[in-house]
Amino acid sequence: MNDPLLRARAGESTAHPPGGAGDIVWHPTALGKSARAQQKRQKASVLWFTGLSGAGKSTIADLVEQRLHWRGCHSFLLDGDNVRHGLNKDLGFSDQDRVENVRRVGEVAKLMVDAGLIVLVAFISPFRAERRAARALLEEDEFFEVYVDTPLVVAEERDPKGLYRKARRGELKHFTGIDSPYEPPERPDIRIDTTALTAREAADLVVRHLAQAGRI
Ligand SMILES: Nc1ncnc2c1ncn2[C@@H]1O[C@H](COP(=O)(O)OP(=O)(O)OP(=O)(O)O)[C@@H](O)[C@H]1O
Ligand SMILES: [Mg+2]
Description:
By secondary structure, the protein is an alpha/beta fold. It has one domain (31-212): Rossmann fold. The chain has nine helices and five strands; from the N terminus they run ααβαβααβαβααβα. Strands 2-3-1-4-5 form a five-stranded parallel sheet, with helices on both faces. Adenosine-5'-triphosphate is lined by residues 51, 53-60, 80-81, 122, 124, 158, 160-161, 194, 197-199, 202.
């Protein structure tokens, strides 16, 4: 069995692990992300929205993207539910799958930053370590953690998809805030108190922050 992939699958050690650096050599490209972003008259960035289910991530991110569009910015919104319909449809809600869910989205966001875009990520992304890992994929000034801060009682009261009701009835397992933990950001770049700001006011705040940081 000479094929290293087959040997690795059979549990044998290989000189170059499949998927590792080994024989896979990065091919440098002449055009970089700054050239791609410059053409779009913006600095590529990630707005990473985190918060409980029903906190308002999708609602606010959607309004932010519309505002960016009106200003002539080039953006893309990666929404948790939508990505789970395609790229991540093989993943469930165990801790392990949640980690993989966020890891893949971090990598996709990085590709989109390389394309010069303003990327909006709206995922519960409950664990600090995974959000830190997503930030570590990018330059320090490219990543903005946006904490959509909504108390559990308020999110549960809103329950826009009826998920809390199902989780309380025991029909949904591993539901964040009920029987799966949420680790709030300690030092978010932007914090939105959705009990004090409307979704529109929150979207204006995020766009203002991006402009003040010189990204758009
Ligand atoms: N100030 C506010 N900001 C954002 N959403 C609000 C606010 N006040 C009320 N809402 C309502 O709260 C709900 C938030 O739902 P949304 O789908 O945006 O949450 P989410 O954080 O994306 O949840 P999930 O993780 O389940 O996708 C919407 O129905 C929205 O209209
Ligand atoms: Mg959502």
